[in-house]
Design brief:
Elements (H helix, E strand, L loop, with lengths): L11 H19 L8 H14 L12 H11 L12 H16 L12 H13 L13 H11 L3 H17 L1 E2 L5 E2 L9 H6 L5 E2 L6 H13 L4 H17 L12 E3 L2 E3 L10 H15 L2 H16 L14 H15 L2 H16 L17 H12 L15 H9 L1
Antiparallel strand pairs: 1-2, 3-4, 4-5
Bound molecules: zinc ion.
């Protein structure tokens, strides 16, 4: 992906304001007793404090990242599901990501890679089965496991099992009425509220749980020569199908769900669902595979997202809150350099930061996708000149851009 060096978009007064808010929130996070935290909450903190370590933030708490990491790994339950977000695959992804940062001299964390062998065994055993029974999605399914295996490259085992992920994606794609093969979500893999809307299942057009996430994952398989012909064929069919679903409605282009006889439209901006996340996925895919017409058409959708009146949502998280919107706009700004994306990113960062003005430790909401660790990582990306490579777990950047970010 063509990418310029990462720079802070929040500078001068706004930058100082956000910097002091981040320091205060991190102080509150740091002094939370370990006993209140489960393994994933501790790992999210380790990720946050590792990224923050180079930012010269002044906060008073003394943070021992290595002891947090050890405690987190001791507390991991083997009963966690194999999910990239909220499961064992997330544990493995964070450990591998921290290990890569350590090898690249970004952090001083101890080598923890051997820890991953046991989790890899569980993942490989599932992928070796003839039929994949789980979801195909990024958050809790095949694509999420694939994202972890991308992080494990260039290990031969990661390459071999990425090929198994492609095998299962190929087998689980089914023909639509238009004779195009994509991935249909069965009711068994929907939340209860989604099942009420789509009782017979349907096609999901969000990045987090749907087809755009598969497309974006496949683009990295093509770039890394993981069954490139098959990956590209699946990608091309899915892109064709998604573009056929463009259905302008009240300022938005993509519906969030399509189910027989019903199209569920949603107009809000967010990473997980809606035009912003979907178009960003296809835009980055187009950059990676070198498809200029797709890149231009998705840039148009993204510009329309930037033209929309900023939402004043009370949700600040990176999944579907304003800091996720800020972060995606910032990513697009760093890809194409158009000032409108920078302007919108700043507005959403400041709106998100304002939610933390009166933050106290009692207000802490755990988590990465919807909690404060993810929110603060997003704010850090706004004031930092270090590339936020943690967003590879959201398929918002790739290994190539990470390498470029490190070289500066
Ligand atoms: Zn969400």
């Amino acid at each position: 992906m063509e990418e310029t060096r990462w720079t802070s978009v929040l500078t001068d007064g706004p930058g100082e304001t956000v910097r002091s808010i981040v320091a205060r929130v991190m102080n509150a996070i740091a002094i939370t007793p370990y006993a209140q935290l489960d393994s994933l909450a501790l790992l999210h903190q380790v990720l946050l404090f590792t990224y923050a370590a180079r930012e010269h933030l002044s906060f008073s708490a003394n943070v021992d990242v290595n002891s947090r990491l050890s405690l987190a790994l001791e507390a991991v339950s083997a009963d966690l599901p194999l999910f990239l977000h909220g499961g064992l695959v997330e544990v493995a992804w964070i450990v591998e990501h921290l290990d890569r940062m350590s090898r690249d001299g970004i952090s001083g964390l101890a080598e923890e890679a051997n820890y991953l062998a046991a989790i890899d065994e569980l993942i490989f055993a599932e992928l070796d089965k003839d039929v994949w029974q789980g979801h195909y999605d990024l958050i809790s399914g095949l694509v999420g496991i694939g994202v972890y295996l991308l992080e494990r490259l260039p290990r031969p085992s990661a390459r071999r099992y990425l090929e198994r992920v492609i095998y299962h994606l190929d087998r689980s794609a089914t023909a639509t009425e238009d004779e195009i093969r994509v991935w249909r979500t069965s009711p068994a893999h929907m939340s209860s509220s989604e099942r009420m809307l789509c009782p017979v299942g349907g096609y999901n057009l969000g990045v987090a749980h749907g087809i755009p996430g598969v497309i974006r994952f496949l683009s990295e398989c093509v770039a890394n020569s993981i069954r490139p012909t098959k990956s590209r064929a699946l990608l091309d069919e899915a892109v064709k199908w998604v573009l056929m679903q463009v259905d302008p409605f009240d300022g938005s282009n993509f519906p969030c769900w399509i189910t027989p006889g019903r199209v569920i439209k949603r107009t809000r901006l967010g990473w997980c669902y809606g035009d912003l996340g979907t178009a960003a996925s296809l835009f980055q895919t187009a950059e990676i595979i070198g498809n200029s017409p797709l890149k231009m058409s998705m840039l148009d959708v993204l510009r329309r997202c930037a033209e929309r009146v900023p939402q004043r949502t009370t949700n600040v998280g990176i999944c579907h809150g304003c800091l996720g919107v800020a972060h995606v706009f910032n990513r697009i700004y760093h890809s194409c350099g158009e000032v409108v994306f920078r302007t919108r990113a700043i507005e959403y960062y400041l709106h998100g930061a304002s939610a933390f003005m009166s933050f106290g430790s009692a207000d802490h909401k755990w988590g990465f996708l919807e909690g404060n660790c993810g929110s603060v990582l997003a704010l850090l990306a706004g004031i930092s000149s270090i590339e936020p490579a943690w967003d590879r777990s959201l398929l918002l950047s790739d290994n190539v851009s990470f390498a470029i970010g490190l070289s500066h």
